[in-house]
Specification:
The protein has 80 residues and is mostly helical. 38% of the residues lie in helices and 8% in strands. Strands 1-2 form a two-stranded antiparallel ribbon. A hairpin with a 5-residue loop joins strand 1 and strand 2. Helix 1 packs across helix 2. The radius of gyration is 18 Å and the shape is flat.
Length: 80
């Protein structure tokens, strides 16, 4: 008996240097930060996502499978 071969197609990641698709407000914030600080767009995007994560922590709780709830932060580490 032969083993079957399975292949899984990986989804294509968006080109983040052009911004997030369907997120014009975030893209504007990233572009403003990029022009002001002159940091790479990708670093600016991560910074904006971290700021959004901190801002929404007090507003959104995630219910855990085994009971209880917790905030939903994004853990981000930037090395420049």
């Amino acid at each position: 008996m032969q083993a079957e071969n399975f292949t899984i197609e990986q989804p294509e990641w968006p080109d983040l240097s052009k911004g997030l698709p369907n997120c014009p407000l975030i893209n504007e914030a990233v572009e403003y930060l990029h022009k002001t600080v002159q940091a790479p767009r990708e670093m600016c995007l991560v910074t904006v996502l971290a700021a959004i994560s901190v801002a929404q922590q007090g507003l959104i709780d995630v219910e855990q499978i085994y009971g209880g709830s917790s905030p939903s932060p994004i853990w981000i580490w930037i090395t420049a």
